[in-house]
Amino acid sequence: TKLESIQVIGEAHTEEALRYAASLTEHAGSILKDIFAGAILTDDQTLQTFENYVYDEGKGIGGWLDNKRVLLGTRDMMIEHSIEGIPATAKVREMVSEGQDVLYLSISGSVAALFIVRLEASKSIRHWLKELERENMLLLLRSNDAMLSQRRISKLFGIREESVKIISARYEEDYNEETKAVQTGSPSMLCAGRLAGFIQTVIGAKRIRTAANLGMILQAVT
Question: Theoretical Cys-Cys bridge with 51: which of 61, 64, 119, 185, CB 3.0 to 4.6 Å?
Answer without folding.
Answer: 64
